[in-house]
Design brief:
By secondary structure, the protein is an all-alpha fold. The chain is built from eight helices and no strands. The C terminus is likely disordered.
C-alpha cells in the first residue's frame, strides 16, 4: 500500500485542524527515525507508519461527541475511523486489526505489547525540541520506565510551568 494514500486520508480528516496534521507528520518523522535506528523495515515498518499517521484520527469525532479530545475518547473513536480508511485502501484484515488495537490504546502505556506499539508511544510523547514547539495536547503519565529520570524531571517542570 501507499503511505501517501494514508497521509491524504489523514489530511482530509484534519483539514480544518492544521495542528492535527502538523503533529501527526511530526510523530511519523519521529517514528521513522526510531525505526531506522532499530533496523525495522517491510510490513512492520509500514504498520508503524500507518499507526503514526492515524493514531489521533478519532480526536475530532471525540470532540464532536464528548466535547473533549481527551485520550480516552480518542481511543474510543479512533479505531472505527481508522478501520474504515484502511478497508477503503484494501489493507489486510490482520494489519487493520493490529493498527486499530494500537490506536484504541495509544494513551494507555500498560497496553504496550510490542515494538510497534512502543515506537508509536515514544514517537507520540517525545519532548519538544524547542520552547516554541507545542507539546502534545494530552497529559503524559508521570514516568515511563524506559526513560531516564532527567527527562521526566524536565518534562514535569515544563508541564507545571506551561501557561
Amino acid at each position: 500500500m501507499s503511505k501517501e494514500k494514508v497521509i491524504a486520508a489523514m489530511k482530509e480528516v484534519f483539514k480544518d485542524v492544521p495542528y492535527g496534521i502538523e503533529h501527526t507528520l511530526t510523530v511519523l518523522t519521529d517514528a521513522e527515525t526510531i525505526m531506522e535506528g532499530e533496523g525495522i523495515d517491510g510490513v512492520e515498518r509500514e504498520l508503524i507508519s500507518v499507526v503514526a499517521l492515524l493514531h489521533d484520527i478519532g480526536a475530532l469525532e471525540a470532540q464532536r461527541k464528548y466535547g473533549s479530545m481527551e485520550g480516552m475518547y480518542q481511543e474510543q473513536e479512533g479505531p472505527a475511523i481508522a478501520e474504515r480508511i484502511l478497508k477503503e485502501l484494501n489493507y489486510d484484515p490482520k494489519f487493520i486489526e493490529r493498527v486499530c488495537f494500537i490506536i484504541g490504546h495509544h494513551h494507555t502505556p500498560t497496553k504496550i505489547d510490542g515494538i510497534d506499539f512502543q515506537i508509536q508511544w515514544e514517537a507520540d510523547f517525545r519532548l519538544p525540541t524547542s520552547i516554541t514547539q507545542p507539546m502534545h495536547t494530552f497529559a503524559r503519565p508521570p514516568q515511563i520506565a524506559t526513560e531516564p529520570p532527567a527527562i521526566v524531571r524536565l518534562q514535569t517542570t515544563r508541564i507545571v510551568h506551561n501557561p
